[in-house]
Specification:
The chain contains 10 helices and 11 strands. By secondary structure, it is an alpha/beta fold. It has 2 domains: 3-91, no CATH class; 125-266 and 284-332, Alpha-Beta Complex (2-enoyl-CoA Hydratase, Chain A, domain 1). The strands form 2 sheets. A 6-stranded mixed sheet has the order 2-3-4-7-8-11, sandwiched between helices. Strands 1, 5, 6, 9 and 10 form a 5-stranded antiparallel sheet that branches. Helix 6 links the parallel strand 3 (138-143) and strand 4. Helix 3 (49-57) packs across helix 4 and helix 9 (311-324) crosses helix 10 (326-332). The longest helix has 18 residues, at 25-42. The protein is elongated.
């Protein structure tokens, strides 16, 4: 769920055009040593570290020659051993720039903040890809990502104003691969009343955990409680997208239509393994305050299972059915 980490990786770790020399076995071992030194310090599931380390140290990496290939292979093996796709390993031949130390966004100047907000708005419309009206008075909001609340606030208000008078709503999260927990709580605020303690990001030390609440007031109109809401998912809906699915199903009783999601409930932090390798480690986990659980490694099972490409058609059918027979729709929940 750490959008900061994803942006950091995309912007900071460009690989130089020239070929790097092959890694020696000693260098590979040094990288693995550094990776597990950081994992032992940071990983959210410390009881699993020994099992993960044994699996990695049992691998044969002699056929993997280049640093980039080694990073990719080690990343793949870490994800499999931990059953956690929030692990990343990245090679940067130019050295490691300063890294974030926690979930909070790094300090920024007014000019940096203004530019960040401008880029988010211009390039991605703050995560809102499409807002539409369908025959039968069904609204559709398609999201590409869940942006931080302070970035999405105006666009979210406009989107909700557009669909406020519809009789049912489809929230399309099939393409959402991640997002920010403040944005998840903000979007949930449009579908529930009052201030709800919806979920936590739990750390190894309780004092480092972060609680997330819905907003007591929102900029745009709330979606009326009696109206049915359907969420579309795919097998690649991940992390922040899954967090919004889980929260909406719990607190709004929205129905999920599509495919089982990918299964990532953790927030990840980049840490320095060696002078040229970074390992991104899950260091906090989402906890639904109503269930005490999350979906990590297993995904979220839909209420109506259909291929992702057919999910909107199925949700539209269910929405029209719910509009025409509200009592039946309530029983289906």
């Amino acid at each position: 769920m750490l959008r900061t980490c994803v942006a950091f990786l995309l912007l900071s770790f460009s690989v130089l055009a020239f070929a790097d020399p092959a890694l020696t076995e000693r260098e590979k071992s040094r990288v693995i040593d550094g990776v597990f030194a950081r994992i032992r310090e940071t990983y959210i599931e410390p009881g699993d570290v020994a099992k993960i380390e044994a699996a990695i140290r049992g691998r044969d990496y002699r056929a993997v020659q280049t640093p980039q290939a080694f990073a990719a292979r080690l990343e793949e093996d870490l994800r499999k051993a931990a059953n956690d796709e929030h692990f990343w390993v990245t090679y940067n031949p130019g050295g490691i720039p300063p890294l974030p130390t926690g979930i909070q966004r790094q300090p920024e100047t007014d000019a940096q903040r203004e530019e960040r907000l401008r880029v988010a708005a211009v390039t991605r419309n703050n995560g809102f890809a499409r807002v539409a009206w369908l025959e039968g008075n069904v609204g559709v909001i398609e999201m590409s990502s869940v942006y931080p609340a302070d970035e999405m606030v105006e666009t979210a208000a406009a989107a909700m104003a557009y669909v406020k008078d519809t009789s049912a709503l489809i929230l399309d999260l099939r393409k959402v691969r991640g997002g920010d927990p403040t944005g998840v709580a903000h979007m949930l605020s449009y579908f529930v009343e009052g201030r709800i303690h919806a979920f936590d990001l739990a750390a190894r030390k309780a004092e480092n955990s972060v609680q997330y609440f819905t907003d007591a007031t929102v900029r745009g109109p709330r979606y009326a409680a009696g109206k049915p809401v359907f969420m579309l998912t795919s097998a690649t809906t991940f992390s922040g997208g899954e967090a919004l699915v889980d929260a909406m199903r719990t607190w709004r009783h929205a129905r999920v239509v599509g495919e089982r999601t990918r299964g990532g409930a953790n927030a990840a932090l980049p840490t320095k393994a060696t002078d040229q390798f970074v390992v991104v480690i899950p260091f906090m986990k989402t906890v639904n305050t109503a269930t005490g659980k999350n979906w990590n490694g297993v995904g979220i099972e839909p209420d109506a299972s259909v291929p992702a490409e057919k999910a909107q058609d199925e949700a539209y059918r269910l929405a029209l059915e719910a509009i025409s027979d509200p009592a039946r729709a309530m029983r289906a929940r």
